[in-house]
Amino acid sequence: MAIPYKASSPLFLCLILSCGDSLVNCSEFEVGGHDGWVVPKPKDDDQMYNQWASQNRFKVNDTLLFKYERDSVMVVTEEEYEKCKASRPLFFSNNGDTVFKFDRPGLFYFISGVSGHCDRGQRMIIKVLDVEPAAPPPQSANEDAQKPPHKKNGVAEMIPMSIITTSTLFVLSTFVLQLYA
Description:
The chain crosses the membrane at residues 158-180. Belongs to the early nodulin-like (ENODL) family. This is Phytocyanin domain-containing protein. Residues 1-26 form the signal peptide. It is a single chain. This protein has a domain at 27-129: Immunoglobulin-like (Sandwich), CATH 2.60.40. The protein has a 5-stranded mixed sheet with strand order 2-8-7-4-5. Strands 1-3-6 form a 3-stranded mixed sheet, with no helix packed on it. Strands 9-10 form a two-stranded antiparallel ribbon. It contains 6 helices and 10 strands, in the order H-H-E-H-E-E-E-H-E-E-E-E-H-E-E-H. Strand 9 and strand 10 form a beta hairpin. The chain has 181 residues and is α+β, with helices and mostly antiparallel strands. Helix 1 packs antiparallel against helix 6 (166-180).
């Protein structure tokens, strides 16, 4: 028997939350939007891709999706980026549907591997942020002693989302699925 769902149902919410670790920790960005990874048209600014990149925030584990035809994507050094030439790119793909995952913070330099495309603006610099989890403010021993326990009338208060793991969400969603079965 299929279980019907609505976007507002608890079942749907639990399914989304069970994927929470993936949803919260990374994003996929489609380079160039619906046009894809193409040579900018003469009327467009040759900084089109850098302008796009500056309007987004990238972090480790985010991915870029490059869609293109008869072209390629290369990750190169800063020097190769400036020259629009790479004899030994750090990354190369020409499959028309390239996904590139950021594995570290810092600067990434992308260019087209087709001769002349980079010179006409098909290149981009992306800064990947070094995001560290926010640490709670330091507390003295007196503050800890004065804190009330996290229970009211013997029932635990809400659990902060920062300590809920994917496995916990999976168990919760499995429980909810059993309720609807």
